[in-house]
Amino acid sequence: MNKYFLALLFFLSSGVFVVSFAQFSLSIRVVDAASDEVIPGAVVYVAGKSLLTDFDGMARKNALTKGKYTYKVTYVSMQTLEGDVEVSSDTLVELKLKAGFRQMDELVVSGTLKPISKSESAVPIEVLSATFFKKNPSPSIFDALQNVNGVRPQINCNICSTGDIHINGLEGPYTLVLIDGMPIVSALGSVYGLSGIPMGIVDKIEIVKGPSSTLYGSEAMGGLINIITKKAEKAPRLYLESNTTSWFDTNLDAAISYSKNNVGVLLGANLFNYNKPKDLNIDGFTDLTLQQRASFFSKVSFGRTHKTQVALRYLNENRWGGQMGWQLSDRGKETKYGESIFTKRFEFIANQDLGNDLSLDLSYTHHNQDSFYGTTKFLGDDKIVYFLAKKYFKIKSHEVLVGTPLRLNLYDDNTFITESNNQNKPVYMSTPGVFVQDQWRVSDGFTALAGIRFDYNSVHGAIWSPRLALKFKDDKQTVRLNIGRGYRVVNLFSEDHAALSGARKVIVKETLKPEQSWNVNLNFDKQFVFSRGFVGFDASVFYTHFFNQIIPNYDVNPAEIIYANLKGYAYSRGFSLNLDLATDSRFTANVGVTFLDSKISDGEQKVRPVLSERVNGVWNLSYVIGKKGLKIDYTGNLVGPMRLPTQNELDPRPEFSPTWSVQNLQLTKPFISDKLEVFGGVKNIFNFLPYKNLPFLIARSEDPFNKNVTYNNEGGVVANEENPYGLNFDPSYVFASLQGRRMFLGFRLKL
């Protein structure tokens, strides 16, 4: 198989570039009118294209014919500048922006697969810059998303700290994670794939809440997270960031870039180490999973007009949690209980711009997991190839996108899922498809976007995914209405850690059908601009209705997890509010809250799903003392209450969590003209710990192999003097990290 990937790589790398017959280029240099300093990252609209200025404040548009062109330049905290420029030869124009207050109109790609300004997108998209994540430094993107409204990282196991990302109350498998627009983190990699992405190579993250299956296929039912890496020509030549906490968990990010003669190279690395076991709740188990992780990233781009881009990432991770004193020699044995996971992951992404709005995308991921959960061995190997050819057509006021995606998935493990007639039989799925999307600019204030996708899955057959988006806009506010259908092909063991951890037996009652959903999202966005700042207000109402949802049932028997398609229906609904504030007193604030109502109905009764919260709030408050002085960041979240997986009516642990909050304080001081930053502070200021006021978190932690558990004829646990609550060993009762208050210190160097 490898020779075919090498052949494809060679093809993409050596594609024939289209020769431009245009004669002239227009270069626009953007500077601050007050200081004459260049402004990198300004958005320049010219000749129907959106460009970003580089670190020299430059944006260039090539292949222009002779004539007059209109430009518009926007940048945060600056007044918008518009005008015309005459081009009759290669032209350089310097534009000076004056101070003012407005939100930056970022370029976004996730909603339509085409770069477009955020305000013009018919799909509501939240954009998080690298600056956002500096307010609360975290060792992975998984942890960093805890301060995003409506987005919640959920820890699913007290022992190995597996987790997923919930969007608007929907579980992690409904969230698709992309890198540079390619669906990289999915299937077996959904549990650990968000670890080890070097923050030094991240330019921004785009988040779409609501189904995006029309463009991205399976696993985008609840929304998507698109991690966009930096371009070498706009990245710092050197970036270093390191921090450590009083728990001695240490993280290092490094990145270097090179750009010359239309060739760009970006290299990044992430190293993380935590090897100091702690057991502050004295249950005999580690409070935080021990980890050693190394990840390396490289991206090369070349070509002036029609670029080729190739990126690679490799992740190697060793993590374990379990009984204190566990050693590698205990792996898979009953001497001490431990959950040990070795992960090796390789990612490849390639993009070839063929000109004339035609491009080819290719990605390949190989995720290998070698793990033991106590004495339960799980070996998983997942290979995914994704290919996409897409073409844009401009027909009067219509922008039409046509795509032909192809996804190939080869999955193998040592469970009964890949077993046939007592022989191993890997699962192979191919999903070719086609989609068409039309964005129609009906008028200056009204845009309609309609799309439909057809996929044919080799296991499940034909699947249709339509979408409709309407945008109404004037100078004061924007209203967006999105309606879409989503679907998801389930990878049971690769997505649900509870199927492996603990002593519950897995029961699959039937051949599982793909999950399907309909979603409606109404979004209102308004900005209030005044002389000393601005206020941005964003509100959304959403509703998702599920068919064939696959629900892990923990309630029938404490010794079993029963998987089946829901015979009734399920829904998740709610609304969210978000407020942005910036003033010339150097104070900025972002505050958000999401209220959720999720239910599962079997036709007779409605119940809340496990690990579903009622409210999720976040805040990010920042203040700078002096013109370039000390910066104070106060961040936090508020979550709860959520339903937890208790085992039976005798279980003394509460069925619902309290409403809880983790808050952080950081001080940052720049040095050497902002090239060096030193930061430090306190995480979890008020020392929230989920085990406070509880009899225990891990059920029967003193008997992890259930040697002293008695079962009845139906497989249920018998309550007796030794086991008064009738419980199995089970680490799935978890809703927050066990890390309490801790100090942290770090630095950033950017050249």
UniProtKB/TrEMBL annotation:
It is a multi-pass membrane protein. It is found in: Cell outer membrane. It comes from the Bacteria. Keywords: Cell outer membrane, Membrane, Receptor, TonB box, Transmembrane, Transmembrane beta strand, Transport. Residues 118-223 form the TonB-dependent receptor plug domain. Pfam families: Plug (PF07715), TonB_dep_Rec_b-barrel (PF00593). Residues 258-685 form the TonB-dependent receptor-like beta-barrel domain. PANTHER family: TONB-DEPENDENT OUTER MEMBRANE RECEPTOR (PTHR30069), TONB-DEPENDENT RECEPTOR (PTHR30069:SF57). Belongs to the TonB-dependent receptor family. This is TonB-dependent receptor domain-containing protein. It comes from Lacihabitans lacunae.
